[in-house]
Amino acid sequence: MPESDHLVRAITKNNAFRAIAVSTRDLTEEARQRHNLSHTAVVALGRTLACGLLLCYTLKKTKGHLTLKLKGDGPLGSIIVDSSNEGTVRGYISNPQVEVFDKKGYVDIDKAIGKTGYVHVIYDNEDSMPYQGSVEIISGEVADDVVNYLARSEQIPSFLSCGVYLEPKTGKVLHAGGMLIQALPEAKEEDIKVVEETLSKLDPYSLLLRSGLTIDKTIKKGLSDFEVEIVSEFEGLCFYCGCSQKKFEDAIGGLSKDEISNIIETIGYAEGRCHFCNNKYLIKKEQLEKYLN
Ligand SMILES: [Zn+2]
Prior knowledge:
This protein is an alpha+beta fold. The protein has helices at 25-35, 39-59, 109-113, 143-153, 189-200, 205-210, 215-222, 245-253, 257-266, 285-291; strands at residues 6-12, 17-23, 65-72, 78-84, 88-93, 117-124, 131-136, 158-166, 173-183, 228-235, 238-239, 270-273, 280-283. It folds into 2 domains: 6-239, Hsp33 domain; 245-291, CBS domain Like (Alpha-Beta Complex). A hairpin with a 6-residue loop joins β12 (270-273) and β13. The relative contact order is 0.18.
């Protein structure tokens, strides 16, 4: 199994269940550093990054992007993740420095995200109209909310577990990932009961990873009553944002001459920051003046 972030797909030999698992430690740590995330924010965004990738690889057959947005009434504000089934993901959170701890000193994710609000999913296939769906937030824990989305909006009964484990002092990401198990049409009622029973007793995902299990082993543990076959693996999941200085210049260059003159007179330069990756872009006065000619 590779050390870097990767994805594993599996199926049970009786064709009753399929599963996808992702390891997302490095890309979650990159998100933490880029956005200077609090402990609470990195757990919330890290779970959503894993779920965004799992959803993208589950719902999308062709090339394209999936946006997963959690808009709760908690202090973190909105969480937005954009994933592609080429293994890239990026995301941000409205209030990245907020901390919410419970009485025992653990991050309190449902309180931080909020138990009221919406889960929005948009997927864009490039060659067809974008599809949108949304459901109400039921838990604020991320995984349960995505499962509820799959059940309500897509009519797919699913089990999803995801987790982020941090180095307690520094907040550095030590483990992150998630797993999605879905019943296929071949699944018998008793098969589903067996899996539900096993999964209800399973440790939280961050603990499974912390105990040293690789993601293929987490699938095998979740489907321990069945013979599991690994169908494919993909290495190279990564945090990636397509923004660039050129795109920023194109956006500013597309403004009206009045608007550009106004920027030159009031600020003297144009500065932009990408929400998704926190990269900053700058256009100096001399270049702004060129847009006027
Ligand atoms: Zn960016």
